[in-house]
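check these tokens.
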Amino acid sequence: MAAGGVVLLGAMLTGCGLAFGREQVEGPDLPPGADAVTIPEENVDAHDVLIVVDDGSEIHDECAGREVVVSADDAIVVLDGSCGVVRATGRGSTVDVGSADKIVLVGVDNTISFAGGEPTIVNQGRNTTVAEGGVAQE
């Protein structure tokens, strides 16, 4: 009887991830031909994406609809205007944006603030926060 109960409990818990707000977090949109496992060795500031990998970076720029990935530790990133998807995957970073379509936290000890809008928020990080406010201009 106990073995059957364990199997039943296991079957019931199998699909519970979604019941607790877990969502699949997709990776950044990559340009055609890009290798999904290539991690840049320095910050990338391109027309459609900003990738911050340098620990301790301090950046203040216009977002201009770009996708943003902050994988650096202890970075301070302020992006005025509207962003696409903003991801914080590093440790101890502060990211302020004017607005964003979606905010995703999967790192540790990160804070993202947005000045306006109603972004979709996925917070799967540890000791991470998302709040309206910050110093970025909408």
Summary: Residues 1-25 have pLDDT under 50 and may be disordered. The CA atoms of residues 5 and 11 lie 10 Å apart. The chain has one domain: 42-138.
